[in-house]
What we know:
Elements: E1 2-6, E2 11-15, E3 24-31, H1 40-49, E4 62-66, H2 75-86, E5 93-94, E6 107-108, H3 113-119, E7 151-152, E8 174-175, E9 177-181, H4 190-194, E10 200-202, E11 209-211, H5 221-225, E12 231-234, E13 239-242, H6 247-250, H7 267-270, E14 277-283, H8 297-304, E15 309-310, E16 321-324, H9 331-338, H10 342-350, H11 354-360, E17 372-376, E18 380-387, E19 393-399, E20 402-406, E21 412-417
Parallel strand pairs: 3-16
Antiparallel strand pairs: 1-2, 3-14, 4-9, 5-6, 7-8, 10-11, 12-13, 15-16, 17-20, 18-19, 20-21
Amino acid sequence: MAQVYNWQLGRYMSYPHAEHHPEYQFAFVFNINRCIGCQTCTMACKSTWTFGRGQELMWWNNVETKPYGGYPQYWDARLLAMLEEANPGGQVWNVSRRDAQKRPYGEFEGWTIFEAAERRPRPEFGPQAALGYLPSDDEWRSPNIHEDTPTGDVFTSNTGVTPTAEAQLPEHRVWFFHLARICNHCTYPACLASCPRHAIYKRPEDGVVLIDQSRCRGYRKCVEGCPYKKVMYRPTTQTSEKCVACFPRLEGRDPAISPTQAPAETRCMAACVGKIRLQGLVRIAPDGTWSHDPQNPIYYLVRERQVALPLYPQFGTEPNGFYIPPRWVPRSYLIQMFGPGVEHALEQYSCPDRELLAVLQLFRATQQIVFRFEIQKGPKVAEVEVTMPDGSRRVQEIFNDTVIGYNKNGEEVARVTIEEPTFERPAAWHVNSI
């Protein structure tokens, strides 16, 4: 295998193909603290891309309730157990080697799915480029299984826990959260690495991972290899399919949304009711790192402030989907899911400073992709006492700043203030006014 650099792991790792990177990379940030599990994004994707015969069990976008939910069921727990079995006690992070540019989360000293397949081959399943498994048909049947099912202490009289104590930050004793998922369009896709037909590729212009249907023969090695199980088999065509990142929108081909051909957000992003989603395109340097661009909101949230974290970075695919972790969930659970940057991310999000609070307003502010933002300062409007993740108190100063977003063409596409404006309708103009 070739050696490639994975900045999320903070080290070089094994991968079946040599380094080769796109000009821009499709990436997104989901704020889990805002997700209400309404499944609007799920149905927006379903009605656009997977409404045909043979696609009944395909959900390219899904929202699963953690810790018990998953689509397919147990997708993350099973792979984590397989990695632990391959490398007992070795799946650990060395946070002492943290470096802001090269190793923002420290260095992962365990095995990735590629290294586990290389060092511990599983002959009973045939050769694998990436450690993985094929889910059973039953595991694909319930996209929202265990929806809104919590875990933790129960509300009984003999627990000694009052209902109010159950809902105290920084952690709740009874908790669940909604995890929205689409294909991460990884930098080192396991589906691409696993395909014996070379039918899967990354687009050079935006890093979107696609399947060439004319080359695919339905071997399902991609389904087996993808750790997030976001490649799915279609029995009617005997080929695999996956999220295509609504690439016609990325190309600015929707005249209603992009009259000047500027890239637009995907259907699932644009339909989000809870405003949890922000999509972007980040410029990639020749060595595969993100080019320094702190005025790009995705770069700002992921690399500059490190408030948004990758999903299971230890798998080694360098996913380009990032999440602002939920505040109320036990830290050990979040760290195994998002890596050791959780405490820093939660501290940033719990009491955002003036600039970060302004950038957070860009979520769902426009259907076009924001490539650059600027902030116009406004007056101070409030001081709020905030409970920090460590239980301490901090006073947050809030300013009514205005954040402006610009598209790829430099055109203004969003203008949002921190304080939501109030409009009063004149009573003389509206007879039903109170």
